[in-house]
Write a structure and sequence with these properties.
Blueprint lengths: L1 E4 L8 H15 L13 E8 L2 E15 L2 E13 L6 H16 L2 E6 L4 H6 L3 E3 L6 E3 L12 E5 L3 H9 L4 E3 L5
Parallel strand pairs: 4-5, 7-9
Antiparallel strand pairs: 1-2, 2-3, 3-4, 3-9, 5-8, 6-8
Length: 177
């Protein structure tokens, strides 16, 4: 039976961290090595079949400012289905969406355009051509992110409309997660 858990970086087990870090290396390359669990305020999204992790993702606490209004959001990232082709990724993304709804908080992630259809099928709004409007508080942190789509879940549709309809910068305190 599939279940989801959302431990934070203080309560997740070392066994899960080791698995997540190994899967990050396998799926994203060696740049993702190391234990980041104790460095950032993060929530882990785990999809489990009994105690076996089938998929995972991270929810990073991010400060976002748009139109001089500050928002506390959760940055959706590091989404991996360990076993592909079984629907685990979709189950995980729906569990994350439900978690965001239960917490009444905005969730934003970035994806390659080829994955946008998947995120829409999971109930997220996908906004094209806005990732270049995300600006970071540290001038030393810049990534090539102009070609990414932005996936968003929010209990407030005005927020999404605002992102879609104007061209003002969106300031965040973390690089793309």
């Amino acid at each position: 039976m599939l279940t989801s858990q959302f431990p934070d970086n203080h309560t997740i087990t070392d066994t899960y961290i080791d698995l997540i870090n190994e899967q990050r290396r396998l799926n994203f390359g060696d740049d993702f090595s190391g234990d980041f669990s104790r460095q950032l305020e993060m929530i882990y999204a785990l999809l489990l079949d009994n105690d076996t992790v089938k998929a995972f993702g991270t929810l990073l606490s991010v400060d976002l400012t748009h139109h001089n209004t500050s928002y506390k959001i959760l940055g959706i990232g590091n989404v991996v289905a360990i076993e592909k082709g079984h629907g685990y990724g979709k189950h995980l993304m729906i569990a994350i969406r439900n978690y965001l709804a239960s917490q009444n908080i905005i969730g934003i992630g970035f994806c390659e355009p080829r994955l946008s259809k998947f995120y829409r099928a999971c109930g997220y709004t996908v906004i094209k051509n806005i990732s270049d409007r995300f600006h970071y508080s540290s001038a030393n942190i810049q990534k090539d992110h102009e070609a990414l789509d932005v996936l968003c879940y929010t209990p407030n549709n005005e927020f999404i409309r605002s992102l879609q309809t104007d061209k003002t910068p969106i300031h965040i305190n973390q690089p793309i997660w």
